[in-house]
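Handout, section B. The chain below has 743 residues.
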Amino acid sequence: MKQSLIIGIITTVFTISCSAPKQKTKSNNQASFPDSLAGTFLDHRIDIEERLNLIINELTLEEKCAQLMHDAPGIERLGIKPYNWWNEALHGVARMGRATIFPQPIAMASTFDPLLIESVASAISDEGRAKFNIAQKNGNYLQYAGLTYWSPNVNIFRDPRWGRGMETWGEDPFLSGILGGAFVQGIQGYDSTYLKAAACAKHYAVHNGPEGLRHSFNAYSSPKDLYETYLPAFKMLVTDYNVEAVMCAYNRTLDVPCCGSTLLLTDILRSNWGFKGHVMSDCGALANFHGLHQYTNNPKESSAEAIKHDVSLNCGTTYKNLVETVNAGLLSEVDIDRNLRLLWRTRFKLGLFDPYGDNPYNNLGPEVVNSKQNIDLARQSAQKSIVLLKNNGALPLKKDINHLFAIGPLAADVDVMLGNYNGMSGNVVSVIEGIAGAVSLGTRFEYRHGFLLSEENKNPIGWAISEARGAEACIAVVGINTLLEGEEGEAIGSAHKSDRSDLKLPGKQLDYLKQIREGQDKPLIVVVMGGSPIALEEVQEFADAVIMAWYPGEQGGNAIADIIFGNASPTGKLPITFPKSIEQLPPYEDYTMYGRTYKYMKEEPLYPFGFGLNYADLNFSNIEVNKQNYQFGEAITITADLNNKSDFDAEETVQLYVSALDAPFPVPTYDLKGFRRENIKANGSTQISFTIDSSDLYNIDENGEEQYIKGKYRFYIGSTLPSQRAVDLGAPKSVSIEIELNI
């Protein structure tokens, strides 16, 4: 067939128009498919594997190698358009103009709500597909205009000093896997043939800072920590949620660069977990092989190591030498073909070479981008992510309060709503805008900046503090922002390459809060912004209410106001432990888990994992199991009553923990095994039920092996980690019961 004819037909078949008519049925498309394309790689009636054979056979070595770069060029003679694999969608379509900005992942993790996360991710990929359709029509093939999203980040937030912890789903592997998996489902869609977009699990593996050392660091993990903490969320995304891609990390793990690790990529990912998708390098990671890790001698050796480990996509420039690497005998063309097949299978699953009408996602148009439905979803997500850390009865405030004052360096800040890896929106709502929209028109409501974020006020005269003290109630908005924490080079206010050296409120924020409090007992509500734990011990003592609002997305201001004025009840739970100070933490560079997270921390934290108060007066009682003794493999059903003794209708996140009491080796003090949101009417009661298989009660020994321990197990049902600290902070006491397991 003449190449000009192929190109002409491709142009006809693959024209994308947002105003195109609704898709035809598949049978109609098949009937009208051009005879001239029958039996070619463009024939969507043929199995994908055969189509991959056909396209690979069409390409020269040079063309194949170029396609393994993140900025893959077009192949004009075959009518193949350029495609840039580098696209971001951490909490909304990122860096591609207008899109709905949802709460930062650490905030969404506070919802403990996989159904909500799935809805959010589905909205994100709807918008992403619509924007892709428009970009294709406009001939825009640039970075961030594609459909391969490098999210979610399921690294474990093991240390609160890590600047990128805000991108994760917290410190617990089970929670991270469930919520990260829900995100993957929403991104990839539910069509039996096509992916709506492709999700990517990153950064594989044992990648949790320090940011300044990430390109050269050797993360040493014991076998126990590797299989108990660092790998389970990745495993869940691969085996349970069919994530399309995995990104290997910059650092070395156990002496070997992650993007060249036989253990991580061959033995675990491919052989043990059965991963069939493509693996990509983090951006510039392959250059680190020879440049910083000194693992190889030159770029060609680095390329050979990565390709042999089936790292099919190079984000960076190292693979520009692939042809030379093959010619030098370090790789064969078979190696290139194998990796091209792994990578291009994703493009076929996205429907990028199929007739327009066959793909249901081609009908998504501009009407879905930042739609009212998605804006409402962003607000709901932010409401559910907000964590009430203290309330002595000050909240909810009355909307018709006579005199309300807002103060603080972040009260009018819209940037703090955005987080990082964010899109753009014309609907970003600051805290004072949200309050102004909620409070009575008869209320005297004022705002002053009051004090600076990270330094002392320069002017010795400051009226705002005394004005705040004179109001009937004061809302102070403090915390940190993405100038102080983030990814390596982004947090330009950080002296530690975007990490934090301590957990304190920056500058003199604490001093100014004390001045507002001093000598008066009018309600002081402190709203804390940020993406990681902050040392709030003194604030906890003198504030009347403390709210952790995170980076809550474009509707954050409205959501915060909804909580303050009782339009919504707080239901968020902390997905990470808040220590009192860094003195309670092991050294940052130490990847050992002992002493870290709720599982192994021995000291009393400021706020426990899973903690978050509710406006309702809730308690748990009457915990029961279906029997006391179990054989291995039997299902265990645990029930308890949840009682609401208040006049508030409530929604509560109920959590199930387990402790193995007879373990012959170190095991977690507590282990989260289940969670669910429950609605309970005012002055009502409901029964909570969890059923788990006893085969899920394994623990990881020091050799990294799953072990089933005979003996006693204690189950806890409650609204937070079952600790005295949580009760002292106002959480209802968990209820517990023991069972005996025979192996």
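Note. The first strand starts at residue 71 and ends at 72. Compare this with the example in section A.
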